Amino acid sequence: MRQGLRYNFTTLRKEAMKDPQIGKPVPRKEGREKVTGSARYVDDLRFPGMIHGVTVRSSIARGKILDIQFGAGIPWDEFTIVTARDIPGKNCIALLMEDQPCLADRFINHPEEAVVLLAHPDKYLLEEARRAVRIETQPLPAIFTIEDALARKQVIWGEDNIFKAYRVEKGNVEAAWGSAEFIIEGEYETGAQEQLYIEPQGMIAQAGPGSGVTVWGSLQCPYYVHKALVRLFGLHKEQVRVVQTETGGGFGGKEEYPSMIAGHAALLAWKSGKPVKIVYDRAEDMAATTKRHPSRTHHRTGLMRDGKFLAMEIDFTLDGGAYETLSPVVLSRGTIHAAGPYFCPNVRIRSCAVATNAPPHGAFRGFGAPQSVFALERHLDRVAAAVGLSPKELRLRNFIHEGETLAVGQVVREKVQMEKLLDRALELSGYHEKRKRFAAENAQGPVKRGIGFASFLHGAGFTGSGEEYLASEALVTATAEGKVRVLAGSTEMGQGTNTVFAQIAADALDLDCEQIEILQPDTSLVPNSGPTVASRTTMIVGKLVETGALAIRKSLMDAGLLKADYGTGEFAEACRQYIDKFGALQSLVKYQHPKDLHWDDGTYKGDAYGAYAWAVYVAEVSVDMPTAEVRVEDFVAVQEVGKVIHPVLAAGQIEGGVAQGIGFALYENVVWQEGRMMNGQMTNYIMPTSMDVPKIRVYFEEIPYARGPAGAKGIGELPLDGTAPAIANAIAHATGADVREIPITPEKLMELLESLHA
Amino acid sequence: MPEAPRKIRVQCVINGKAASLEVYPMARLLDVLREQAGMTGTKEGCGEGECGACSIEMDGVLVNSCLVPALQAEGTVIRTIEGIADAGQLSAVQQAFLVHGGAQCGICTPGMILAAVSLLSRNAQPTESEIREALSGNLCRCTGYTKIFESVVEACRQQGLGK
C-alpha cells in the first residue's frame, strides 16, 4: 500500500511537469477515423426504411410558375411529392431576412430555384422521375450584372435591387483632393468562386407531427439549420434537433445552404413518414449552392508628395444573387477590410450588395475581404508605379501603427509590426535579389518571371456588435472518472476544432488531450456557440472553453479536493469526490463582450473587430508568353496570428487557404449564362491540383492576444485575402500586364499582353 | 422498349476476403463497394473520375471506382482504405498522414492514401516531382497538398527504416 502510494506520487510529479499541449502538434482528435476510412459522413449513413429525395428546379431565371405537370411513364403513386403547399410553417429559409423561399411558389427568381421535391426508395427511378416533371412558366425579363442591377434595368428585389449599402466616412475626403500631389484611380473585379469542398452537401431527415424534426448532415452551423427548421415547420425549439455528421470541408459553403437541404429532406420525411436522404451530386452542388460574391471595386487615392496617403475613396459593390441571404454581412466585412492595414486621414467607402437573377451568393472563406483586398493591393502596386516609389516603399510609408485609427475609426490598440512582417517575407522569398535578376533575365526567352506581394489584415470574430448579439455559450463538464467533455455548437470540418478545443481545455486543466472529449455537435445536447465561421472558433469559442475548464479546476480547488500540483489520478479522484458531494461538475460559459469595444451600427464606426491577424504574402510566378500560362513557382506566407495553438494545423490552414487563393487568382472561373453556372463539373471548373501548387512556405510571428485563449487570434480566413493580389502583382511584374480582374485565365492574360503591344 | 438489365453475380476478393455480389453489370463499382460491400470508406467527390476520392486498387492498379462498371470486378483483387491498416495497426502512410497533417476534413484522405500506397509499392523512394505527379489525380481542397507531400515523404522514410 505504502509502496503503491509512493509510486503514484512520483508519476504524478512527473505528469505535473508535463509539456503544455498548446504549441505542440498533438495528433488530430478524429484523425485515426479519417485515415482508416471509418469516419462517418452523411452519405455513409443508412437508416432502416430510408428513402431518397431529389429536387426539381426551375428552368428559367425569372418568371411566373403557371403549372406543374407530372409526365407519363412514371408510377407517381409510389412517390412522395412535396410542393410549397405542403409546408407546415412559413415558406422561407430563415436567416437574416425571410425573403428566400424553401420552395418557389408562383414566382421564380433564379434558374436553380427548388420547386418540387420527390422521394422514392429507388435512386435510379427517382432520377427518371425528376426529368419527367415539367414546370410550366411564363418568363419575365431578368438581370445578371452589377451594372444592370444598379441601373434598375428590372427591379427584381425591393424597390431598388439593393440588399444593403454602407457608408464609411473618416476625415473629409472632399476637402483633401485639393491638397493631393497625386491622384490615382482604378477599377478592379473579382469573379464568383465555388467552395468546392470535396464532400458534396447532404442531409438525412426524420420527421413527423408527433416526433418533430431531426436532421443529420454535413454543415457548419447547427443552430442556423435549427432556426430555419423551427420557422419552416412552425415548431417549438425543443421539437427540432440538428446533428452534424463528419463534414468533408465547408469553407463557408456549408454555412447557409444546409438549411435549405435540411428543409427539403425534412419536408419529404414529414410527408412520407420515412427517413429521407438527400445528397447532391457534384453538378447539382455546383449549380445550386452558394459561391463567393463577384465584386467590382473602384479606387481613387490621393497622396502627398512624400508618398503618404491623403485620401482614399472606395466604391465596393457585390453581386448578391437573387435573395438577401448573408450578403449584408459579407458586404460589411469586405467594406471594413477595403482600406487595408494602412493609415489614411481621409477615407470614404461606399458599398452595396445588389440583386441579380443568379442563385444567391454566400459565405466563402474571407467573406468579402478577399474581394476588396484584391482591389486595394493590386491598386497600390499601380499607385506605387505612378508616384515613383517601389511597392515596398509605398507600403512602408503608409502602414498603420499602434495608436492610429483605421478607416472605420478603430484605434489600433494591439502591437502591430507590419514593417517586420514585410521585411521577413521579402527576405525569406529573396524578393530584392529576384526583382533585379528577373528584370535582367526576362529580356530573353519565352518565359518571364515575376515576384509580387500583398500586405493585409483580417479581423477575427463577428464584425462590430456581432459577437455581442450572438452571445455564444460553451459547456465544459467533468465525469466521476476524470474525463472532461467540451460541449459546443462549433463544428469540425477539417480545420481542427476538435483538436484545438482539446488542447485549450487540456492546458487549462493540466491534463493531456486524450482526457478531453469533444462532443459531436447536436442541438439537443450542446449549447449555441454561434456559427463556425468568421475565424471565430479558436479565438471566441476557444476562450469560452478555456474559461469553462479553468472554472472546473477552480471548483475542485475551492472545494479543497485538488492541490496546486496534481496529476491525472488526483484529478480523477477529485472529480469523483466532487460529484459525490455536490452533484454535477460543469461550467457553462457565456461570451462577455469586452467593455472597451464599442461599435455603432448607425454610423458604422468603432471597434470593428476585437483583434486582427496581420500578414504579408509573397508570390513568385513564371509566365509562358506564347501560351500566357501562369505558374506559381514559390510562395511565402508570413503572418502574425497571436499564439499558435497547433503548429501543424495552423500551417495547414494557411497552406490550404493559399491553394484556394491560387485557384481564385488563376483558374477558378465560373462561366455564367442567364444566371446559371455552365461549367459545374470538376472537369471544366478547374481547382488547383498537386501539380499546380508550389511548396507553400509558412511562417508565424507570435504576439499573444490578451483576450484569446492562451493568446490566440483567428486564422482560418486570412490566407484567402492576400494570395490573389500577390499573384496578380507578380504577373504584372513579370509581364507589365495591367491586371485588374481575376481569375487571370490564359485567355484574359493573353488579351492584356496583346494590348501592351498594340 | 429495351429489356431491363438483369443482375449478374460477380466474384472478387475485397481486402483479402472472397466476395460474391449480385449487381447490375453497369452499376458503378463505387456504389457496389459502398452499398453492397459496406465499404463506405471509399468516397464520391465528383462521379466523373476527376477528384480521385473514390480511388481503390484493382489488381494492384489505382483506379477511380466511379468509372469502373461492376462487371469488370469479376475475378479481381480489390483493396480499399479499409484494407490498408493491418489488424488495427496503421500503415506507415496512414501514420504519417495522421502525424504530419496530411488529413484535414478527411474526405479525400482514403483516396489520397490509396494513391500514396500505390506509388510507394511501385517506387519506394520517389522524388518530390514523382510524388506530385502520382497524387495529381487526387484533389484536396483543404491542405494545399504541402502536408500531404510531407506525409508521403515521411512514410517513405519510415518504410526505409523498416517500419
Mean pLDDT of chain B: 95
Note the overall shape of chain B.
globular
Stated plainly, the CATH topology of the largest domain in chain B is called: Ubiquitin-like (UB roll)
Distance between the termini of chain A: 93 Å
Unreliably modeled segments of chain A: 1-17
Q: Assign the CATH superfamily of the largest domain in chain B.
A: Beta-grasp domain
Quaternary form? heterodimer
Number of domains of chain B: 2
**Distance linking N and C termini of chain B:** 59 Å
Describe this structure in words.
The complex is a heterodimer of chains A (758) and B (163). The N terminus of chain A is likely disordered. Chain A has 3 domains: 163 residues, Aldehyde oxidase/xanthine dehydrogenase, molybdopterin binding domain (Aldehyde Oxidoreductase, domain 4); 190 residues, Aldehyde Oxidoreductase, domain 4 (2-Layer Sandwich), CATH 3.30.365.10; 191 residues, Aldehyde oxidase/xanthine dehydrogenase, molybdopterin binding domain (Aldehyde Oxidoreductase, domain 4). Chain A has 758 residues and is of the alpha+beta class. In chain A, 32% of the residues lie in helices and 23% in strands. Chain A is globular. In chain A, strand 13 and strand 14 form a beta hairpin. With 163 residues, chain B is an alpha+beta fold. A 5-stranded mixed β-sheet of chain B has the order 2-1-5-3-4, sandwiched between helices. In chain B, strand 3 and strand 4 form a beta hairpin. In chain B, helix 2 crosses helix 5. Chain B starts with 7 loop residues before the first strand and ends with a helix. The chains are: A alpha+beta (758), B alpha+beta (163). The interface between A and B is large, with 56 and 55 residues.
